[in-house]
Structure prediction request, 162 residues.
Amino acid sequence: MPTSAPTDIDRDLTFLLAQAAHALQTELTAGLAALGISPRGHCVLHRALPGDLTQSQLAELCNLDKTTMVVTIDELEREGLAERRPSSTDRRARIIAVTDAGKDITERGQAIVTRIHGDVLATLPGAERQAFVDALVHLVDGRLATPAQCEKPVRRRAPRTP
Prediction:
């Protein structure tokens, strides 16, 4: 029985998305290392910039579990990039405020992130760039927005920083 080359639709979507995510995360980690910050730390600072977000809200926006979020905020506080402040509406909650040093690092980090994202997307033909991003947004906001319930949920590992 003859075998034919796999078509694009036959490729392993899980592998392709995981490989792309890993390569991009690794490149971002290397790029942001010059600033002494991880992609995770940059995400938290970037999302916290507008202000008045609690630690829990930021964890959700950055897709971090509770423990990883605590460790990340501890690191950012130690570096003088963010600080926990009491919430004016919920005495149990803490608002994450970005310090002036954190704002500077976030701005410089965002330039690195934007450059890397641009470099990656530039490898696609011009007409496909926006379609690719739109398709990913459609998947993440739609069909892949909520993980399926399963007996043994897949644990998301935080990226390791050197």
